[in-house]
Amino acid sequence: MRIVITQTADEAGRQVAVDIVDRMAARAFRVLGVATGATPLPVYRELARRAPAHALLELVALDEYVGVSASDPRSFGAYVARHIAAPLGVPPERVHVPDGAAPDPHTEATAFEKVIDRIGPVDLQILGVGTNGHVGFNEPGSTPSSTTRVVELTEHTRRDNAPSFAGAEVPAKAITQGVSTILRARTLIVVATGRRKAAAVAALARGLVVDDLPVTFLAQHADLTLVADAAAGSLIDA
Ligand code: GLP
After folding, report:
1. Which of 10, 129, 155, 227 to mutate for ligand 1's pocket (most ligand atoms within 8 Å of CB)?
2. Which protein residues are within 6 Å of ligand 1, measured from CB?
3. In this predicted model, what pLDDT tens digit does every residue of 102-146 receive, in sequence order?
4. pLDDT for 54-83, tens place per residue?
5. From CA 94, how far away is CA 106, in angstroms rounded?
6. The dihedral of CA 175, 176, 181, 184: what is its sign?
7. Probe ligand 1: pick from 10, 134, 158, max atoms within 8 Å of CB?
8. Which residue from 35, 54, 45 is spatially nearest to 13, judged by alpha carbons?
9. Residue 129 alpha carbon to ligand 1 centre in Å
10. What pLDDT was estimated at residue 56?
11. 3-state secondary structure of 174
12. Helix H or strand E segment including 1
């Protein structure tokens, strides 16, 4: 595992964007796995600045809330369209996000796993981490063999994500790529900033699996980079 500690969150974002652009240049790069949330926003800003428009790139999202359609600005589908696909010039037909408004979310989850099988492997998957150590929406209790499925969000996660819903009810369920789905990507980059991620980051950096911290399942991956700012990296080796 390669670990990079930067002074600030913006520097962490720049570092991840530089890594991605380098990998895009180094090999045939078709599929970029993207994460949502506040942490990767500087990555996408820098990527749009550095990377040429990529009409041929395929974007694959990690997760989506159940019961929220992509036309809802609070959805991850809307996030990907606004912050990633549009700035990078990726057309909608090359953007793959689980459909949170699908009639049967379980059928949608199974179909999404097949989309990844069809267009994959994901060349590089960008990942954030939840304050409870979740990755995507693989909450504590998820297994390393999990695949794309419908999950119940913990109250901890719903509280963390409440600001995106501005007082409205945070969905109780989501569709998420499973841990084994994520591990099939050729390259993983976990980016974390802020003190609230420090415990999960330190556990990942130790390289030991901790069952109730799903992000630690990623330590076994052959090509994993962890980029953290000083605050998120503050407990490494503690
Ligand atoms: C959500 C997403 C995760 C993301 C996490 C952290 O739960 N499902 O993919 O990593 O939030 O988000 P933030 O970067 O805003 O802390």
Report:
1. 129
2. 35-39, 62-63, 128-130, 136-137, 157, 161
3. 999 999 999 999 999 999 899 999 999 999 999 999 999 999 999
4. 677 999 999 999 999 999 999 999 999 999
5. 23
6. positive
7. 134
8. 45
9. 6
10. 78
11. strand
12. none
Q: Please check whether residue 215 is in contact with residue 179, taking contact to mean a CB–CB distance below 8 angstroms.
A: no
Residues marked active site are found at 63, 132, 134, 139
Q: What is the residue with the minimal CA distance to atom 6 of ligand 1?
A: 130
Report the nearest-CA residue for atom 13 of ligand 1: 37
pTM for the structure as a whole: 0.96
Which pair of tokens denotes residue 212? 């109730």
The alpha-helical segments, DSSP class H, found in the chain are 9-26, 41-50, 76-80, 86-88, 105-119, 155-161, 179-183, 198-206
State the average pLDDT over residues 148-168: 94
In residues, how long is the chain?
Answer: 238
